[in-house]
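FIELD: query
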Amino acid sequence: MEHSNMDLKTTVDSNVVQPIKTPRPTRDDDLHRVRQIQLGSISAYESLYRDYVGQVYRLCLRLTGEKSLAEDATQEVFIQLWQKIGNFEGQSQFSTWLHRVTSNIAISYLRKQKGWLKRIFNIDDTDVHKQHAPRSVEEIPLEKYIQKLPERARLVFVLHALEGYRHEEVADLLNIAIGTSKAQFHRAKKMLEEWMSHEG
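FIELD: result
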């Protein structure tokens, strides 16, 4: 497909995290648009973007824990989507394929950030314990608690508990042992339960 990455990035930058409420696309809708994108259709790409940018951003935010990183990762997802769309063969639902691509890109993007490796392997991170727990769910929703988790525990919790990946898949995505994935999940769960118990 003949189209510059700069043009695509401009499209993404101007619309990121501003999803338009439209009827949920059907599998046939997605397949049709994907075929059009594979033939070089920018309008089909923009239509797909409008339908999925909110979903992609929410997953990126859960994985990164920071709005600025999530916005940058979302942009990267849609830039790479244009480049990788030719790999989609229609054997699974597009939303499932996009979910996997988003997870991979968001995690890869995190690894490129300064200090990521130091943060993700700092098992003894105690900063989060020093923060005061919120008093009610209404004041700060669960997403805020999740973002307070240490990096690796958050990644494992989001991928396993919220996004449905098996521990074997989480371990493969994060390049960690399966046992480590399970341990980090239980660590995250314990921390969340402790914070929730302090409400009221």
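FIELD: remark
Residues 5-112 form a domain with the Rna Polymerase Sigma Factor; Chain: A fold (CATH 1.10.1740.10).
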